[in-house]
TrEMBL record:
Keyword list, A-Z: Cell membrane, Membrane, Transmembrane, Transmembrane helix, Transport
DNA damage is among the record's keywords: no
Biological source species: Micromonospora coriariae
Family annotation (Pfam families): AI-2E_transport (PF01594)
Name the record gives this protein: Predicted PurR-regulated permease PerM
Localisation per UniProt entry: Cell membrane
Family: Belongs to the autoinducer-2 exporter (AI-2E) (TC 2.A.86) family.
Domain of life of the source: Bacteria
Main location: membrane
Family matches, as InterPro entries: AI-2E-like
């Protein structure tokens, strides 16, 4: 019979094994790493939230910089050798185009506003008396009776509207500052693009250099294709609006159609804003014209949202139409106006990255191109 103490270690049953000093240090190190990662994530999210306005400006500037960079590269390659001069000329040309469009739109509008201001007292007098087109319209919808019954409440509401004038002025100043910041950032991004690209390619090494060049070309093509497709859709909207307004006899049909085309460039709210402008002009001309314009925009918005945008933008960005529609809806729900603006190019960029770096089973099919004659078809060999 062997005793318990004959050369065997005595082990107490039911007692846990004590952790060694090495195990304690490993556990403490892992705990500190987890705490550090959590704190770093919290600080990063707080930083993004605190600087969200500047980050939005930077993202929008990068968006326009990627779109204008091919023009600057082509101008520098063909005509102007200095990068700074080529960038300045492209931005000046873009500014001239925007200024010409603004002049074409604003000059007739200011003229009409002046004429409206001269006729405003007479129109207001006729509206109060129920005379004229506006007075009859207000009488038909019961607006005059509502105003007379709630005149005190409307006067109080008008007084409250005058109070936040400082906030409106601050918003205008911030908008102008953001616009200037976006232009300056986009200019500097385009100007410094060759240096930034060269440093990134040098850091990547020979193995990844050609792949990064290919990804950069695809990203640039995606953004440029999105802008081109969006412009095509706006031109279609403006042309159809001009035809409808001209057929219904609404005055200044060309100016209103140009306003609608410019407003249609804005995602989500642009088409609705253009519809309000055109329908308002139609109702001021005649109730029949207003109804016709309103029906046209209801039908056209459905066609644009579910047919034109998926098809044209899918062809320009080389995305599946379903992907285009789902990307816009999800991004608009998550990030609002900015998300809708960047949804389609972001989806195209994700597709490019998946094609280059993703797993083989998740990579989308490459765009169809000419077949390689050196490549033999799969399948059994032809028996001669």
């Amino acid at each position: 019979m062997i005793s318990a103490g004959a050369g065997f270690p005595e082990v107490s049953a039911g007692k846990p094994r004590r952790m060694s000093n090495a195990d304690t240090r490993v556990t403490a190190r892992r705990t500190l790493i987890v705490i550090g990662l959590v704190l770093a994530t919290v600080f990063a999210l707080a930083f993004v939230y605190a600087t969200r306005r500047v980050l939005v400006w930077a993202v929008v500037a990068a968006f326009f910089a990627v779109a204008l960079k091919p023009l600057v590269d082509r101008l520098q390659r063909l005509w102007v050798r200095r990068r700074a001069l080529a960038t300045l000329l492209v931005f000046l040309a873009a500014f001239v185009v925007v200024a010409v469009l603004a002049t074409v739109i604003l000059a007739p509008l200011l003229n009409e506003l002046g004429r409206f201001a001269e006729r405003a007292p007479d129109l207001l007098r006729d509206a109060r008396a129920g005379r004229g087109p506006l007075g009859q319209l207000l009488e038909r919808f019961g607006v005059r009776r509502y105003v007379s019954e709630h005149s005190e409440q409307l006067r109080t509401f008008g007084t409250r509207l005058r109070q936040p004038a400082v906030g409106v002025l601050r918003g205008v100043v911030e908008t102008v500052a953001g616009l200037v910041t976006v232009i300056v950032l986009a200019y500097l991004m385009v100007l410094e693009a060759p240096r930034i690209t060269g440093r990134v390619l040098a850091a990547a090494g020979d193995g990844q250099r050609e792949r990064l060049r290919r990804v950069g070309r695809e990203v640039s093509r995606t953004v440029t294709g999105y802008l081109t497709g969006n412009l095509v859709i706006s031109v279609i909207c403006g042309a159809l609006t001009f035809v409808v307004l001209a057929l219904t006899g609404v005055p200044f049909a060309a100016v209103i159609a140009l306003l609608v085309a410019v407003a249609d460039l804005i995602p989500l709210v642009g088409a609705t804003l253009g519809a309000v402008i055109a329908a308002g002009a139609g109702f001021l001309h005649s109730p029949t014209a207003g109804v016709v314009v309103l029906v046209f925009f209801v039908v056209y918005q459905q066609v644009e949202n579910h047919l034109l945008q998926p098809l044209i933008l899918a062809r320009a960005v080389r995305l599946n139409p379903l992907t285009v529609l789902v990307s816009v809806l999800l991004a608009a729900e998550l990030a609002g106006l900015l998300g809708a603006l960047l949804a389609i190019p972001a989806a195209g960029i994700v597709q490019t990255l998946l094609r280059e770096y993703g797993p083989a089973r998740l990579r989308p099919d490459p765009p169809a191109g000419p077949a390689d004659p050196r490549r033999r078809p799969a399948g059994p060999a032809h028996q001669g």
